[in-house]
Amino acid sequence: MESTFEVVWPKSPRGVQTRPLADRLDTLNGKRVAFLWDHLFRGDEIFPAVEAELIERFPGVEIVGYDVFGNTHGGDEKEMVAGLPNGLSSRHIDAVVSAMGC
Amino acid sequence: MRASIAAESAGIPSVSVVCEGFVKQATATGRGHGYDGLPLAVMPGHVDAQTADVMLSNLREVAVDQVIAGLTEAVSNGGAATDEPTALDVAVRGTIDEINRTFIARGWSDGSPIIPPTRDRVEQFIAVTAHDPWRQIGIAPSSGRDVTIWSIAVNAVMAGCEPAHLPVLIAIAEILVDPRYGAEHSGNTTGADALMIIDGPSSVDLGFNHGQGAMRDGHPANTTIGRWLRLYLRNVFGFTPDEHDKATFGNSARVMLAEDMETLADIGWQPVSADFGFDETDDVVTMARMNSGAIIGSVYGSTPAEILPYLADGLARISGWDLTHVYGLGTGQYRPLLVLAPLLARTFADAGWSKDDVRTALFQHARIPAWRFEKLIGEWSNLTPGRRTLVDLAAAGHIPAVFAESSDPERMVPIVTDPSKFAIAVAGDPTRTNAYVFSNDGPHGDWTARLIDRSSSTDLVCGIY
Question: How much is the ipTM here?
Answer without folding.
Answer: 0.93
